[in-house]
Design a protein that fits this description.
Elements: H1 5-22, H2 24-28, H3 32-38, H4 41-61, H5 77-88, H6 94-113
Helix pairs in contact: 1-4, 1-6, 4-6, 5-6
Length: 130
């Protein structure tokens, strides 16, 4: 699938924030955006790098779909899981592979849900209304 740089940035950032929400911040009741803003640039980079290395190959490998103006690309859970499973590899044990596919699929679905609607039918121009 072809995504713009802006779309990928928003997707990876949203996925990284969801990873933060699952960790220590949820237990303490801290707002994720506040915690994100309190991180220094290096801490954000490290989190974005780790999450991006997991989901960017999947986002790029997803099949091309038609995206109507004003909507965002959408994929079924099965499509995402098949794409993730094809990229995970067979060097993991059966149980670890299943857990990895499920977890990474959920992370990719979170990223896809946070991609902004497209307003340029060719997706080569701005992804927002002028």
């Amino acid at each position: 699938m072809r995504f713009t740089e802006h779309e990928l940035t928003l997707a990876v950032t949203a996925a990284a924030k969801s990873v933060m929400a699952r960790k220590k911040y949820r237990k303490r009741g801290v707002d994720i955006d506040t915690a994100w803003d309190s991180m220094d640039r290096y801490q954000r980079f490290m989190l974005l790098d780790a999450v991006g290395s997991q989901i960017l190959p999947v986002l790029v490998a997803l099949p091309d779909v038609e995206v109507a103006p004003g909507t965002r690309p959408s994929y079924s859970t099965k499509q995402v899981e098949e794409t993730v499973a094809g990229l995970v590899g067979d060097d993991l044990g059966k149980l670890r592979r299943q857990v990895t596919v499920k977890a990474r699929s959920a992370l990719v679905q979170t990223a896809l849900a946070n991609i902004p609607p497209r307003f340029d039918p060719d997706a080569l121009g701005p992804t927002h209304e002028p």
